[in-house]
Design the sequence.
């Protein structure tokens, strides 16, 4: 589902990622971890094609991301559920509309959009905030809305960047259960986190990045 | 993008409320002027046509006795034409309704009045001007040409005003859309990141401002009908053909959409 071949990326001459290669099979659950500045977010940005690598090849869902037209990039992103570190909620739209927006892009009927949005919000315990604007929510609530928006699409791949960063342990555990459920349904899940306890609680394949290099690819943490 | 599109259109219309109202007003004024201009043009044409086939010539004669001789000479050379000699007393009587009863008619000259086909008026006028018994000759063609020239100039001015107002509408729409797009730059970036096509992003701006244009077009129709109603007491302005009103409304819609398309031609790029 995801393949990186000798991928490098640098910003103003400072390397963010160096010679990264790995494959994530369809339906796999993978943690991406490492200290702050290791390149986790940069790697995820390459996967949803917010950036292009300086060298190497990134293939997602069988598509070489460097060769996609703008329209094809949009079509690819509709198959990805991305949880951004800074949530990236649409501030002028209500919580419900943030979810129905992505469903509308898929061309789903209005009633189905409403149904799916409600169920996704109920799953993250925010069905009562359907009509609220993002700015009326706490950081944790916004993060849960971002997760609901990513999962409501029933995407092929979920990419989550520090999805539990603003949550208490109880909410973090719940959130990981949502990702696990998606994984059990066959969705490929990549979670970038520096929270070691999360990885020890939910053992899975773990890619460890340090200073832009992939230093370990194995099960759980040593 | 169906219901989502209309929700966003509603949000944008709320956001551009002030500028939007001003834009609608400008288009209504411009379109209304334009419609009235068209009506005036048709009225002008109809009036010109009514004068177009016949010209009136008026000659001031040296003496009353010259009139009949001149008339018979004219009938010999330029038949068919109609004419009559007005002695000072009859001229005074005919002028009375406009200028009141004149005290003695001694100072009024005898006048020869002719009705000739318009295409021969200048020829007859030239012939009369060379005659020694004629002191002065004037043609109605000169007056109608002057009036037509003045009307044309006035209509040209009104046309320019209408065009400038419509142009101002387009400019305002472009500006409003640019401001909206810039204030939504972060949302546009997010929309791209979650899979929106460029057309999904542009559509609400175009639809919202096309609606403003439609509103302006309908305003133009309402304004033109109201002003024509007020003028009807003084001028018999001809009515507009039935297709004009939908055409103006549609034109407003297209002009609004065009302005918005120019405004969203370039969207903020991904960071």
Sequence:
């Amino acid at each position: 589902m995801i393949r990186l071949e000798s991928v490098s990326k640098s910003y103003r001459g400072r390397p963010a990622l160096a010679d990264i290669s790995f494959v994530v099979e369809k339906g796999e659950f993978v943690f991406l971890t490492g200290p702050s500045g290791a390149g986790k977010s940069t790697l995820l940005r390459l996967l949803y094609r917010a950036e292009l690598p300086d060298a190497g090849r990134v293939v997602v869902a069988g598509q070489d991301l460097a060769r996609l037209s703008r329209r094809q990039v949009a079509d690819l992103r509709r198959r990805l559920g991305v949880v951004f570190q800074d949530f990236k909620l649409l501030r002028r739209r209500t919580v419900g509309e943030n979810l129905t927006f992505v469903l509308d892009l898929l061309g789903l009927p209005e009633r189905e959009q409403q149904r799916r949005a409600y169920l996704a919000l109920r799953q993250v315990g925010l069905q009562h905030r359907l009509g609220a604007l993002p700015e009326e929510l706490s950081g944790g609530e916004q993060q849960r809305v971002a997760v609901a928006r990513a999962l409501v699409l029933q995407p092929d791949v979920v990419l989550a960047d520090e999805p539990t960063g603003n949550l208490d342990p109880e909410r973090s555990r719940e959130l990981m259960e949502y990702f696990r459920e998606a994984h059990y349904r066959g969705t490929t899940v990549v979670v970038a986190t520096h929270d070691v306890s999360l990885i020890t609680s939910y053992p899975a394949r773990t890619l460890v990045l340090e200073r832009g290099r992939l230093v370990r690819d194995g099960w759980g943490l040593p | 993008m169906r219901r989502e599109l209309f929700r966003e259109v509603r949000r944008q219309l709320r956001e551009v409320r002030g500028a939007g109202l001003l834009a609608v007003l400008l288009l209504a004024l411009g379109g209304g002027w334009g419609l009235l201009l068209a009506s005036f043009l048709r009225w002008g044409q109809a009036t010109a046509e009514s004068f177009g086939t016949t010209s009136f010539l008026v000659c001031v004669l040296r003496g009353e006795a010259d009139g009949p001789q001149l008339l018979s000479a004219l009938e010999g050379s330029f038949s068919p034409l109609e004419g009559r000699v007005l002695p000072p007393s009859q001229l005074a009587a005919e002028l009375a309704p406009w200028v009141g009863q004149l005290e003695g008619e001694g100072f009024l000259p005898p006048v020869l009045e002719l009705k000739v086909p318009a295409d021969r008026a200048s020829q007859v006028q030239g012939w009369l001007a060379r005659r020694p018994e004629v002191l002065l000759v004037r043609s109605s063609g000169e007056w109608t040409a002057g009036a037509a020239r003045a009307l044309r100039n006035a209509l040209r001015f009104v046309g320019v005003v209408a065009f400038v107002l419509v142009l101002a509408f387009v400019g305002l729409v472009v500006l409003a859309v640019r401001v909206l797009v810039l204030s939504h730059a972060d949302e546009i970036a997010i929309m791209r990141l979650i899979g929106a096509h460029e057309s999904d992003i542009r559509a609400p701006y175009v639809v919202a401002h096309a609606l403003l244009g439609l509103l302006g077009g309908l305003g133009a129709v309402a304004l033109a009908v109201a002003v024509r109603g007020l003028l009807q007491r003084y001028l018999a302005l001809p009515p507009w053909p039935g297709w004009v009103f939908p055409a103006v409304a549609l034109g407003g819609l297209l002009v609004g959409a065009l302005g918005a398309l120019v405004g969203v031609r370039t969207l903020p790029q991904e960071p």
Notes: Residues 20 and 212 of chain B are 7 Å apart (CA to CA).
